[in-house]
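Form P-L/3: holo structure prediction, ligand flavin mononucleotide.
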Amino acid sequence: MPGRQLIMTFEVTPTSHTLEAYKARGGYQTLEKALKMAPADVTKEVTASGLLGHGGAAFPVGRKWGVMKPIPGEIHYLCANADEGEPGTFKDRWILENAPHLLVESMLITSYALGVRHAFVYIRGEFDLPYRRIQGAVDEAYAAGLLGKPVFGSEFALDLVVYRGAGSYVCGEASGLITSIEGRKPYPRNRPPRLTVRGLFQKPTVINNVESLANITGIIRMGAEEFRKVGTPKSPGTQLVSISGHIAKPGVYEVEYGYPWAKFLDEDCGGMLHGAKLKCVVPGGISTKVLTRAEIEPLTLSHESVNPAGSGLGSGGMIAVAEGTCMVRFLQVLLRFYHHESCGQCTPCREGMGWMHKIIDRIVAGQGVPEDIERLYAISHANDGTTICGMGDAAGYATVGILNKYRDEFEYFIQNKRSKFDGRLECLA
Amino acid sequence: MKHLIPEFEKMKERFPAGFESSLVLPCLHRIQADRGFVADEDIDGLVAYLGVPRVQVEEVLSYYTMLRREGIGRHHLQVCRNIACSMRGAEGVIEHACKRLGVKPGETTADGKFTLSTVECLGSCGTAPVMMVNDAYHENLTLQELDRLIEECK
Ligand SMILES: Cc1cc2nc3c(=O)[nH]c(=O)nc-3n(C[C@H](O)[C@H](O)[C@H](O)COP(=O)(O)O)c2cc1C
Ligand code: SF4
Ligand code: FES
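OUTPUT (holo model):
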């Protein structure tokens, strides 16, 4: 494994997800410890740990929590974002399936710190086993008296609801998630006000990614100082990287921040499929800009290394792309997706995605015109910063990222009415 | 849907008071699992039970891709067509499924047995290509396995 582990620390067996197995690993002892601390001290420890959000934006978790002052008698909510919709990302699923109690314990600790009485796990509707596992863990925790009533002799009690989505990418966006739980169509909301000020049903709400929350138990158990010994000073801890595409050994890997990127691909992931050569990598979900083999060569898997290279680790959804893959077809799939998922609220996103999708389809059909490339750029730029949620920008980033690096393939396609390669997305033996 | 009300009441217990509106989606999920789709009378029942505006229920129903107002084939095949799956042969899977079943994505076979759909990333990209048959994921799908699944469902 690439470096030290904080989450994938136990052997996965047919029963390792159960309450009994979790308790045998020391489960729920950290909750007992946390309940003896003052709530504000729990938040302080999390802030000191430097934990960065794992949902995509790498926002400091402690800073988000710090906005939400637990005022006694006030209502606050917590939501774990388990929508996992960013294409290429399947790491939260590992936690939900294999360590559901780690999430439940972490949400108990977080709720205690933030004065939350009701918390939600918002899980995408298609997930079947992950849903059964997290719902099963919640039911076990209720039966064991860990949820639903005061716990470990304290006055703190939490109710936890697993809330299922129904097939919509914008529900992963924090405010879309909230409108979804409110029982309406999941339109994202303009900010400010921040959700930590006015969130679910207008009450202060913290939303964190599943993996962000899963780290809380470890941070409180070992203390911020110990936690910071893993990873790098600017990227403390680890990241669950889910890797797919043309890679020999796809799957979920827990990577210690600072681990050399090329080594991770070549050694840990077994190199490329069928001995192919690496053309480029999508670092963290399709909304992050692709980086070429040469670009990643000197980089480590840490925010301070990848961000200056013009991309980001995003949601940890890494996709390896082999030489010979047609990037025009590649972008076509992405733009079809964004168009399909636009909620339609903002004109630049709703119309822009439609236009981009149309243009790329036209190019692939051999009917592109040279101006199409500039049109794709122009629409991407027009979206940047003009939409309610990050999806408008994200589609533009992805597009510009590919156009900047593979413009020649687009020009070739338009001129010759066919792919520079054979239009393949697959990597054949 | 009336026979489901005892279940809805149990579900309510874990929600904060005053969260009736939040129950729209979970109730619709349960109704659809029961009937296969959401009928007009279900909407009437839900509006009466939760006391939410009818337009809200309609809005939710029309927005989410997983919710249906009409029945579909007994076996719902949903093939992921997003990037990681396409890179591992999803386009061939979709083509093969269309040919085998004689339908296009979004259609149901004449005998009502199969509905074929394409969907976006199912969060299973490391075991691509992926197809759901009703609620179950089938990962690392091959054309042989697809044939076998179709035979088994017939
Ligand atoms: C279109 C869109 C989709 C998103 N999807 C997800 C998702 O599936 N899971 C997730 O955790 N965050 C997702 N996010 C990010 C969330 O808005 C939010 O930043 C995150 O859940 C916060 O958690 P963190 O601070 O712990 O990272 C998405 C953002 C956008 C703009
Ligand atoms: S940017 Fe797109 S997805 Fe986000 S709120 Fe606007 S229209 Fe909806
Ligand atoms: S792309 Fe098919 S499951 Fe993610």
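COMMENT: Residues 19-227 of chain A form a domain with the Rossmann fold fold (CATH 3.40.50.11540).
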